Amino acid sequence: MIENRPIITFLAHATLILGIAIVAFPIWITFVASTHDAVRMTQVPLPLLPGDQFFINLKTTLFEGVSGAKSAPVGMMMLNSLVVALLIAFGKITISLLSAFAIVYFKFPFRMAFFWMIFLTLMLPVEVRILPTFKVVADLGMLNSYWGLSIPLIASATATFMFRQVFLTVPDEMLEAARVDGAGPMRFFWDILLPLSRTNIAALFVILFIYGWNQYLWPLLITTDSSMFTVVMSIKQMLESAEQSPDWHLIMMTSLLAMLPPVVVVLSMQKMFVQGLTETDK
Predict the structure, then answer these.
(1) What's this model's pTM, rounded to 2 decimal places?
(2) Is residue 8 part of a domain?
């Protein structure tokens, strides 16, 4: 029997509510700021209740952009961020699935050595190899392109390791049964391994989509054309608009819009995300 302790329950709920308030308050301020005009955002005290300029600011931000900032409309930058995030997420998952499949189910010389070489790349973040990576991308003519924004970030040792662990839990009897039925390696991969890995794929997709969406340093280095800017890097540029005070109401609207796609992805895939991180019995 679970003992009922009202004081402990009250403290637990109070702590939870306090934590939610701490996390949610900056988001609320962002929303409130996006509903006022530029004049109100320069007055003290700052407003804590929504105004009546939300849809006007939304239209201006999406289709016109922030005055003084050398960037495209936020709608175009959100499209760029979406394309890059999807390319990174699908690219990482595809390459990791195939590499884990090869490591687990194919016997070739130095198989485990190659796996540990992949795993050791976790010690080399983008910041460490950013100069040679930029040189390669520039020589291949991929500056100011979706391919240049995504391909250098596609390889993932973490996803490869995760899928390898998933494939190792698949009983050998399934592989033998597939061989008896005449299924080749790719048929076994497509019809058996992929369905068994769908929750892990969903969990990784959420993580990798947010990783791709939030990229800042790499897009900042390889994009000079405003039509290829991403929404995260553009927020910094809006704050540094030359010779004028920042348009805080439009910057806050941009920040609010930048939060929406990751939130939508997490909420829409929440169940599979939790299953993919906790499910061990295949």
Answers:
(1) 0.85
(2) no
